Amino acid sequence: MPIHVHEHCLKMATREDGTPWWAAFPLPKSTVVKISPAEVLELLEQQDQEKPHDFLIVDARRSDCTGGTVTSALNLPAHSFYPTRKMLYDLCKQAGIKKIIFYCGSSNGRGPRCAAWMQDYINEVGGGDIESQVMAGGIRGWVQVYGGRMMDGYDEKAWQQQKIESG
């Protein structure tokens, strides 16, 4: 029997004792700037292959990332992200990254929470030359508009199955 998407998300949102996965971490203080999938696509299409990116895309999903990721996205699951903020910041600073774009399934939970935690850290260390954002609509919104365009590991069957299970 297949797991419905919303049941799966509920399981992902709680620990074994029933508390939310994020309860062990502080509430984010920052309000995160949203970036549209169209703006992310434009960034990807305009990147110069000769020069490094000045943006980083972070997929905050855990085991629900079947179907593919936005091209070049780094998978940093939300449940383990908070303790790694400093390392990610240091790496982005060294690489000249100006924008860190987070997303999850629909960018209603994990993606915005991680983006806010990252922005909190950036604000704490005075790293105003880096901004943390969240991609509106998440990967589902991306696939709805662009299908497999600019995706790594795109699996059309996985997206069709998700539509069936959630619909």
UniProtKB/TrEMBL annotation:
GO cellular component: cytoplasm; nucleus
GO molecular function (one): protein tyrosine phosphatase activity
Pfam family, one: Rhodanese
Family matches, as PROSITE patterns: RHODANESE_3
Annotated Rhodanese domain residues: 51-151
Gene3D superfamilies: Rhodanese-like domain
Record SUPFAM superfamilies: Rhodanese/Cell cycle control phosphatase
PANTHER family, per database record: M-PHASE INDUCER PHOSPHATASE DUAL SPECIFICITY PHOSPHATASE CDC25, REDUCTASE (ARC2), PUTATIVE (AFU_ORTHOLOGUE AFUA_6G13400)-RELATED
Protein name per its UniProtKB record: Rhodanese-like domain-containing protein
Species the sequence originates in: Apodospora peruviana
